[in-house]
Amino acid sequence: MSGILKRVGTTYIPVMNVRESVDWYIDHLGAKLNYQDQNKAIIDLAGQSFFLVKASDNENSNFMDAEGNKRFSQTFEVDGVEELFIFNKQLKDAGVEVGKVENRGHPGRNFTFNDLNGNSFDVWSELSPSYNRRGNE
After folding, report:
1. Is the confidence at residue 136, as pLDDT, over 90?
2. Rounded CA separation 81/64 (Å)
3. What distances in angstroms separate CA 48 from CA 8, 45, 114, one per listed residue?
4. What is the mean pLDDT of the segment spanning 4-32?
5. 76 Cβ partners below 8 Å, 6+ apart?
6. Which of 119, 122, 117, 118 is CA-nearest to residue 21?
7. Model confidence at 4, in pLDDT bands (50, 70, 90)?
């Protein structure tokens, strides 16, 4: 069965207010809006489709790991450490809650940020080798 799944097509992100969230993702991450109603929106971001879905109060995509640390469910990639620092600064300057750039003991550097709903995301300075092999360099 290995190799049947080809890519992730859609990620669902819980949000409190669909309209405000759409604006946030467009303004801060450069997303493109494809569809919107009162309960959901479909945006394109980083080569993938994301559904922003109206959720119950205090819902988000984070989870606690076995050691009690809040974790993110998605890592975005940028092309190099310089772009990572530029993006980190852009988010900070826009008032987004941003973590410090970290060395986690593997190639590249990372930082986390939160959207206006408290969903936490990671950013990594290394493009995946499979992305580069597809000719996306």
Report:
1. no
2. 28
3. 8, 5, 19
4. 95
5. 46, 121, 122, 123, 124
6. 117
7. confident
> CA gyration radius for the chain?
16
Angle at 40 between CA 38 and CA 112, to 5 degrees: 125
**98 DSSP 8-state letter:** B
**What is the helix, strand, coil percentage profile of the chain, to 5?**
20, 30, 45
User: How sure is the predictor about 5, in pLDDT bands with cuts at 50, 70 and 90?
Assistant: confident
- For residue 27, with 0-12 CB atoms within 10 Å meaning exposed, 13-18 middle and 19 or more buried, which class applies? exposed
Question: Are the C-beta atoms of residues 52 and 15 closer than 8 Å to each other?
Answer: yes
Burial of 54 (0-12, 13-18, 19+ CB in 10 A): middle
Cα gap 108→95, rounded to integer Å: 25
Angstrom distance (rounded) from CA 3 to CA 25: 32
Distance, in Å, from the CA atom of 20 to the CA atom of 115, rounded to the nearest integer, reads 11
